[in-house]
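Protocol step 4 of 6: structure prediction from sequence.
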Amino acid sequence: MNKEKTKIKLPSWLNLVLVIAQIVLTVVLVTISIVALTTLGESSNMFIKWLQMNPVWFFVLIVLPLIILFLFNVFLLVKSLMTEKEGAVAALSHEELLEEARRQAREELEKELAAKKEK
């Protein structure tokens, strides 16, 4: 019984849109957190003042999504590295490597014999 994993393959344009959205979200969250932390009561923006007055909401709205994005990216990185290693190792077993080497050697011998016959 050969169990094959079904992989969800997203279109390339959707991958690009998701990557751009993630980058934009990260930049916006980091910018808001930097502005909120550097102004400390001097800001005229009501949202920044509210974030400064409510540290729990600051954590929930700004810091927690950044942590989740970071962990998600780490997961994707580890997953891609593991699939590359599995793909390289599982691509050819020892027996398959020997069989491929024999096939290539046989092809080279046939070419040499054909070249000798032509001479």
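Step 5 (inspection) to follow. The radius of gyration is 28 Å.
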